[in-house]
Amino acid sequence: MTLLRDDDLAAAFDHASRSYDALVAANPGYHAHLRRSVRRLGLPGYGAGLRLLDLGCGTGASTAALRSRLPAAHITAVDASAGMLERAAAKPWADGVTFVHAPVERLAEAGVKGPFGAVFAAYLLRNVDDPDAVLTTVRELLAPGGRLAVHEYTLSGRRADRAVWTMVSRGLVQPVASALGDGALYRHLWRSVVDFDTADRFTERLREAGFDRVRALPLPGWQTGITHTFVARRPETAR
Asked: What pLDDT score does 239 carry?
């Protein structure tokens, strides 16, 4: 199948937004893994005085993970899908959370400007046409020394991990999604993962984009070898 991109992908997420929370709730560890990736940013205290950028916030699961660990930070949460963003914004939030409808490639046009102390991007980079350009934008939005966490499906490169991902996707996720009318999106999900970087390659991509202190950290449970947290930093000084 052809991968969904840009407006087609946003429209697919718009349609899926009504059932998205129920589907991810059936994924063991989904929310706990997001919170673990937030902790791996290693940000001090409760985030007081920090501006955080949540890229690809969807229905707000990543925003909630940031809020739970860093309740005093100001969070700007961005998504290209109006339907997903509407679901996120309708949830109860304390002060300090702002939602912006924009594709990651057009943040400046939407008024999203740095510097940010940290950027969190969950399940985003494999869905963009040019991940290198997006990483360059992210680096420029970060303050010197600012931190990045990418929470992403990135296979280890072992055949066993690809087999598990295919079994779960085709045997469990796609049949349910198809019954809900969202089969195309979740077929895209499977394909986008197997076509994307391995964990080692994405680590190198981050270094090539100008980040330092790059680490790839596996997540536990059935997603070990399938999903990773990548943590990195914008250097304090230009190279």
From this structure: 56
Q: Token digits for 146?
A: 């600012």
Q: Report the pLDDT value the prediction gives residue 29, as an integer from 0 to 100.
A: 93
Q: What is the CA radius of gyration of the chain?
A: 17
Structure tokens, 232: 């990195």
Can you tell me whether residue 26 is helix, strand or coil? coil
Is the CB of residue 65 less than 8 Å from the CB of residue 73? no
Phi then psi for 188, rounded to 5 degrees? -60, -45
Quick one: pLDDT at residue 238? 65
| CA 219 – CA 190 distance, rounded (Å) | 18
pTM: 0.96
111 CB burial (10 A radius; 0-12, 13-18, 19+): exposed
Q: How far apart are CA 61 and CA 101, in angstroms?
A: 16
What's the CA gap between 40 and 89, in Å, rounded?
A: 26
Q: Please give the order of strands across the beta sheet that includes 74-79.
A: 97-101, 74-79, 51-55, 116-122, 142-153, 227-233, 212-218
How many whole angstroms separate alpha carbon 89 and alpha carbon 237? 37
CA distance 66 to 109: 25
How confident is residue 1, by pLDDT bands cut at 50, 70 and 90?
low
The residue type of 129 is D
- Give pLDDT, residue 237: 80
